[in-house]
Structures are given as C-alpha cells and as structure tokens.
C-alpha cells in the first residue's frame, strides 16, 4: 500500500492545477500547496527532526495545521495533534508520554503550551501572531527554500497519534500507521460516495479522527479542504455558499446550529449534496429537519472510533433513524455479553451487548501507546472491545445505545463523569454527586450533575465553582438536579441508569446553567 506522502503526490501529478486548500484569502492548487509543504519539510529538517520523531500540534483548523500534517507524512514524522483548548498539564502530559521533539502552537494555545514545564526542553514553533516571542516561527521555517518533495516514509511507519480519553479521564495515545490511515480514508471515500473534485468544510478538528479523515479523503479525490479554524454557524453558511461546499461531515451539534442560523440568514446551500455525521447519535427530530432543509443525495450515519475508524456505516440514515447500519467495508463487528471475557460470547439479535470489532481489519490500530493496561482491557482474542453498548435488530442492523463505562458524548466530545464529579465533590456544600448524560437534540447528550447537598447551594454557585477550576468548559454541567439521595446498588455502586430514568426524589427545582 502507498504511504501518505505518495498519496499526496498522486494528486499533485494527476491534477496540479486543481484547487486543494482554502483558508480565508489563501487559495492554493495542489502544485502550489506541494511547493509550500516542501519548504516546511526543509524547515523541519533544519529544526533537527528526523523520521520517527513525534511532533505535537496544538492548533485550530488553519492552513498551517493542514500543511504541517502533510509535511509530517512526507518526512516520516508522527503528527500528534491535541485539543487547542487543552490545559498546561494536558500539554505537558502529552509531551512526556509521547516523547515529543517539537511543539507547534498559536495564540489560542500559547498560554497552555508555554505554561507546561515540559515544553521548555523541546523545540517550540509559533504560528501567526503570538503574545510572547521566542523560539522559531512557522514563517521562518518556511523561508529557507525547498528541497524536492520526496517521501521518506513507507506504509508501515507511524503517521499519526491521536489522544483519546478513557473512563479515568487519563488520555491514551492511539498510534496509527500510514496504511491504517490510508485504508480509513479510502473507506471514507467509498462509503460517502465521494467523487473527483469534492469540496468539504474542514471544521471538524484535526485532533479528532473525523477531521483527519476529511483532510485525507480530499487528497484521494483531488478535492478541496476549506479550513474553518473555529465553528460558528453563520460563518459555516457563508463558506458553504462562497466555496460551493459539496459534502459535509459533522457531529450532530453542528447541524443543529446550522439549521438555527438558516432561520435568520438566507443562504444558498444547493451545492451540498452529501451529508455525513458521526461522534454522537442524531435525534430523530434533528435527522428529519436536516433532511428536509438540505435534501441531500446521500445521508450517512457513521459509527467508529480513533482505534478503528469505521465500525459500521448506514448510508440511508433517514430510513431507519438511530440505526448505525452494518460493518464498514474494512471491518467486522460482533455483539458480545456486557461482561464478556472474549469475542466468542455473542448475544442474540435484539439483546443489548458490547460492540466489538475485528483487529485484523485494515483500519484497526495495533495497541495503545505505552498503555499495556488499556490494551489488556480493550484487545482480547484479536478483537477490539469498544466499550459501547448496542444491539442488532431483526434486519441485522446495529443500534448503538450508550457506553459500558458511562462515558458521556456531548457535541462529539468524550467526557468522563469522574473528572466532573471530582471537581464538584470539592465544593463544601456537596455531599454526594453523580454525573451522567441525558439526551439532548443539540448536543447528543448534555452533561447533568445530580447533587445531594450538605447545605443550601444553587446551580449558579456550583457552575461558578466549575468555571474557577481547571475543568475544560465543554465538560461543565449544563444542568443541576438536586436530589435527596443518590441511588446506589447494595454494594454502593451509583446507579446512573436510575438517574437517567428519573427514578430519584427531587430536593428542589432543576437549575440550568449558561452554555
């Protein structure tokens, strides 16, 4: 199989004059972008980076981020993207865990990067205007001329390492080889019926598997990646209209916001013919609204993960709302008992179980980075145990129902209840707290904290407590429910399912916080 550097060369050779990337006023063809990637490759070599080194990128979806991603593919570097909203300790953890040799950052992530002591011992590269000068700059790296753009990696080299949170909230590195990434991108192209010259809105973050897939899939079809650093619905509509976006691949929350903006802004969205969503369930109501407004040729529900990009696919999302379809073209899946020790303990159709996927699939990872404990939990008998629950209906179609470990998925982000409970438990008025996700049309799930109080406190005070902590904003509870008791099993385990079902005694009216 080709590596990703040669994959990009394919587009340069087939369609050198075809538009490749758009970022505001910057619009480059494949030949022009290739020349700029070549200049960055030379700059990275001058920085002392070599094949196999890990490069941390803490940036939004801008031209420089996409260019760095491709430059790393040519050099055999392992691009390691991180949420640009990360805290200094999270940046430091990733630098140490991945043994990073260089970090790229911009103004929005400057405080976190420079505030991480671990960043002091590696090369730091700023992108755009930053508050504190020092270290190298992206512009300087690209000003030293260009060597011939020659791939130095092969399909067996590592291409990417994504960090994903587990039940403890401790990030796990997911290293993926060039062949895994290319197979996933090819599968994405096939399953979304992309044609030559597609144009996609590049707003799903490049630290997320959905964003990476959008970037790579466009190169496979000589398409256009239209950068959107930070989502806002009106801006997205403006780009859809001005850049003639043909396909959207988003989490349900973003579709919800786009529909809301369309009520106040007349926009030509007729260029959009293909829709896909992943990262969280889409409610029936939202599904129908999106179908009615866009009237796409194709509406795809994609279910997968960082570890195995596509587990299942449903190309007729509206026909059976909530259905995740059947195994993708590079995958096999099974449903096993929730407490299954191995892959052969399958459940019957209609019975809820844990979803597992075959690790022999072309898109499957080979194990977590430096986490034998996580490998032991998730990789058994040649199958990946996703931690997701679901069932297969009488037609043979998969429905995903939740998480074995109670992970909340809100707006496409994985949120550990433990992190939030730990913060809230430090408030003097909180006696006990349990956090779970409740269905929400906009977010997929909204974070709700159920609180047993020691003395009087309201939602506003608890929200202020969370804002003053190191809890990331998207993890803050959006609703507080005060209860007389937190329901537990005889052995003291919190029964979150009872909270979700409303089986509790309220202590006072619900409190809702601002977003």
From TrEMBL:
Gene3D superfamilies: 3.30.300.30, N-terminal domain of ligase-like
GO biological-process terms attached to the record: fatty acid metabolic process
The AMP-binding enzyme C-terminal domain, residue ranges: 420-493
Superkingdom to which the source organism belongs: Bacteria
Domain AMP-dependent synthetase/ligase, residue spans: 10-369
One term of GO molecular function: medium-chain fatty acid-CoA ligase activity
Entry protein name: AMP-binding protein
């Amino acid at each position: 199989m080709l590596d990703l550097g040669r994959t990009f060369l394919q587009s340069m050779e087939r369609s050198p004059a075809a538009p490749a990337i758009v970022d505001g006023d910057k619009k480059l063809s494949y030949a022009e972008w290739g020349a700029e990637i070549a200049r960055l490759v030379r700059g990275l070599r001058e920085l002392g980076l070599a094949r196999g080194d890990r490069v941390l990128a803490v940036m939004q979806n801008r031209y420089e981020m996409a260019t760095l991603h491709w430059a790393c593919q040519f050099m055999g570097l392992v691009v390691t993207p991180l949420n640009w909203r990360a805290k200094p300790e999270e940046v430091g953890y990733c630098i140490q865990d991945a043994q990073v040799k260089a970090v790229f950052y911009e103004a929005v992530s400057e405080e976190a990067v420079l505030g991480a002591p671990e960043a002091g011992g590696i090369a730091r590269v700023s992108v755009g205007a930053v508050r504190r000068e020092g270290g190298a700059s992206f512009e300087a790296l690209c000003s030293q001329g260009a060597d011939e753009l020659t791939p130095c990696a092969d399909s067996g080299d590592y291409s990417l390492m994504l960090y994903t949170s587990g039940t403890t909230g401790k990030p796990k590195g997911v290293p993926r080889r060039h062949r895994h990434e290319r197979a996933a991108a090819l599968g994405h192209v096939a399953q979304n019926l992309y044609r030559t010259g597609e144009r996609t809105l590049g707003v799903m973050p490049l630290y997320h598997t959905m964003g990476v897939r959008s970037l790579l899939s466009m190169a496979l079809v000589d398409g256009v990646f239209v950068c959107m650093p930070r989502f806002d619905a009106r801006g997205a509509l403006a780009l859809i209209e001005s850049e003639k976006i043909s396909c959207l691949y988003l989490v349900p929350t973003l579709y919800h916001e786009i529909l809301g903006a369309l009520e106040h802004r007349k926009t030509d969205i007729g260029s959009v013919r293909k829709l896909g969503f992943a990262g969280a369930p889409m409610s029936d109501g939202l599904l129908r609204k999106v179908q009615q407004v866009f009237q796409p040729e194709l509406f795809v529900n994609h279910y997968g993960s960082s570890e195995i990009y596509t587990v299942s696919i449903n190309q007729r999302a509206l026909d059976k709302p909530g259905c995740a379809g059947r195994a993708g073209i590079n995958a096999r899946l099974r449903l096993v008992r929730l407490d299954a020790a191995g892959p052969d303990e399958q459940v019957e159709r209609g019975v809820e179980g844990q979803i597992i996927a075959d690790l022999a699939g072309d898109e499957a990872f080979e194990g977590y980075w430096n986490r034998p404990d996580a490998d032991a939990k998730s990789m058994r008998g040649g199958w990946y145990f996703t931690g997701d629950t679901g069932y297969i209906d009488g037609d043979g179609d998969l429905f995903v129902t939740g998480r074995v470990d109670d992970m909340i998925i809100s707006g496409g982000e994985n949120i550990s209840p433990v992190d939030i409970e730990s913060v809230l438990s430090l408030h003097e008025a909180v006696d006990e707290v349990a956090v779970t996700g409740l269905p929400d049309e906009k977010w997929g799930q909204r974070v709700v904290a159920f609180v047993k109080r020691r003395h009087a406190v309201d939602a506003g005070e608890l929200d202020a407590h969370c804002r003053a902590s190191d809890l990331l904003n998207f993890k803050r509870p959006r609703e507080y429910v005060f209860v007389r008791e937190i329901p537990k099993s005889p052995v003291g385990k919190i029964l979150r399912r009872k909270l979700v079902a409303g089986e509790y005694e309220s202590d006072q009216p619900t409190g809702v916080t601002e977003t």
